[in-house]
Amino acid sequence: MEALDVSYLTRVVTIFNSYYEIPFYHLILETLLFLFIIKIVFSKAQQSPSEGSGKLTPKEKEMLLAEWEPEPLVPPNSLEHDPVVPIIESKVGKYVTIDGQTTLNLATMNFLGMIGRTDIEDAAVASVQKYGVGSCGPRGFYGTIDVHLNLETKLAEFLNVEEAIIYSYGFSTVASAIPAYSKRGDIIFCDTECCYAIQKGCLASRSTIVYYRHNDIDHLIEKLEAQAVVDAKNPKKAKITNRFLVTEGLFINTGEIADLPKLLELKNKYKFRIFLDESYSFGVLGANGRGLTEHYGIDIRKVDMITSSMEYALGSIGGFCAGSSFVIRHQRLLGQGYVFSASLPPLHASMVIKAMDLFNEDMFSDLKMNSKQAHQELTKLHGLQITGAAESPIKHLRLKEGNTEEVLKEVVTKAREGGITLTTASYISTELFHKEPSIRLTVNTELSAEEIQDAISKVSAAFSEVMSL
Questions:
Q1: Do 109 and 123 fall within a single domain?
Q2: In 3D, which of 349, 405, 390, 462 has the Cα closest to residue 103?
C-alpha cells in the first residue's frame, strides 16, 4: 500500500513538473479555449426552448410563409429575345424550306455541300444497319467501335500528324482539350474574338488568361513583353509556368484569318505552345482542305495541337484533335469530353470518313473562288461594312450607320421574302467581350457565279427596302 502511494505521488509530481516545461503561450491558449467552451455551454443553457431547439412557433411559421415569395422556375421572357424561330422543313443544303418557302441557303455552314449527298446518306444507313444508332458508352467503357479507330487513323494520315482523337461533340472538343493541358498557375494568351467554346475551355482551365486585341500582333507582343518582365522578377516560378496561345484559324465572329506565320515567330522567341482551333478552316482553307497550315504552306508539326469541329465542312457532328502521339494520348486520360461522354455515334463517324473520301482539289478551289466573288460583290454595296477575308466563306455585314439588331433582323426577313436565307450572328450574353450585331452570310461550293450575283443583289435590295421605311 505504501509503495502504491509513493508511485501515485511520483506521477502527480511528474505531471505537475511537466506544466513548467510547456511554453507559456501554450498555457494561455488552452485557458482561453477552456473558457470559450464554458461560455458556449452556458449560453445554450440560457436559450429559450424555441431558440435552442430550432423549432418555430406557429406565429413564426405564419410570418415566414407570409413573407416568402417563390422564384420563377425559368427567367421571364425578355422582349429582346423572341422565342418564336423559323421552322425548317427540309434538309439544310443548298436550298432550305422554311415555313413553307424554299430559299437559297446562305445562312448555314455547309461549306462543301455535304448535306444531302446520297453517297454520304448511304454510308450512314449502312452504318446504322451494322452498328445501330448509338454507342451507349464512353470510349474507355465499351464505347470504342472499329469505325472510330478508322476515322482517327484517316484524320492523322490526312493531316500528316502522328495521331488524332475524336470527340462526340464539337463544342466539347476544344473546351476539353485546353484544360487537359493548361492548369492553375499556367498562362493562356487568347484572341478577344475567339469563339465561345474556346472561352469556356480557357475558363475551365483556371489558368491566368491574357487577352490581346483581335489579330493585333503588336498588342500581343506588348502582353508577351509584360509577362517576360514578370518572369524575370521570379525566375523560379517562371520555370514551372506553362504558356499557351489559343486562337482560331478562321474566326467565326469576324470571318478573318489568323496570322499564323507571325504567331510562330513569337512562339520561338517567347517560348509558348500554340493550340489552333480549325473548326471553320478545316475543309475550307488550303489547296486540299487541310486548313491554316496548308493555306500558309507551314509544316503542321510546328503547331502543338490542332482542334476542329466536324459539324461544318464535314456535315456531321463531333470534333477531333490532332498532333503528336504524346499530346493526343494525354487526352485519352484527361480530356473530360472524351473520358466521360458517350462516344460519337458510329453513323456519324462513317459519314465523316465518306465525306473525306470525296475531298478533291476542285471542291476547295471552287469554294475559294465563290468566296472571293461574293466578297467582291459585297464590297460594291454602299452603306455597308463588310468584315471577313476575301477567301473566307464567312462574311459579316453591318450598316455603317444605324446598325441595330432590330434593323438587321428586318433585313433578314426581307431577304427571305426575296428568296435568300440569311441569319443574324447570335452571341451568348455571358460572352466576355461585346459583339456588334451583324448579319452573317456564308458561301458554299455548290453556288454558281450567277446565283452569287443574284443573291447579293437581293441582299442589297433588302437593305435598301428596310432603310427606306
A1: no
A2: 462
DSSP 157-202: HHHT-SEEEEES-HHHHHHHHHHHH--TT-EEEEETT--HHHHHHH
Euclidean distance between CA atoms 469 and 6, whole angstroms: 111
| pTM given for the model | 0.81
Structurally, how many domains does the chain consist of? 2
Domain that holds residue 459: 95-114+360-468
177 and 151 in a common domain? yes
Tens-binned pLDDT, residue by residue, of the chain (469 aa): 455 455 666 765 666 566 566 676 677 787 888 888 887 777 655 554 444 456 788 888 888 888 888 888 876 665 555 556 788 899 999 999 998 899 999 999 999 999 989 999 999 999 999 999 988 899 988 899 999 999 999 999 999 999 999 999 999 999 999 999 999 999 999 999 999 999 999 999 999 999 999 999 999 999 999 999 999 999 999 899 999 999 999 999 999 999 999 999 999 999 999 999 999 999 999 999 999 999 999 999 999 999 999 999 999 999 999 999 999 999 999 899 999 999 999 999 999 999 999 999 999 999 999 999 999 999 999 888 999 999 999 999 998 887 788 889 999 999 999 999 999 987 776 667 777 889 999 999 999 999 999 999 999 999 989 887 5
Cell of 221: 507582343
- End position of a domain, from candidates 357, 386, 406: 357
Distant-in-sequence, close-in-space partners of 375: CB < 8 Å, separation ≥ 6: 386, 388, 389, 390, 392, 395
Q: At what angle do helices 361-379 and 449-468 cross, to 10 degrees?
A: 30
Please say which residue of 313, 339, 357 terminates a domain.
357
Within-domain flag for 192: yes
In the chain, the amino acid numbered 35 is: L
Distance (Å, whole) CA 89 – CA 83: 18
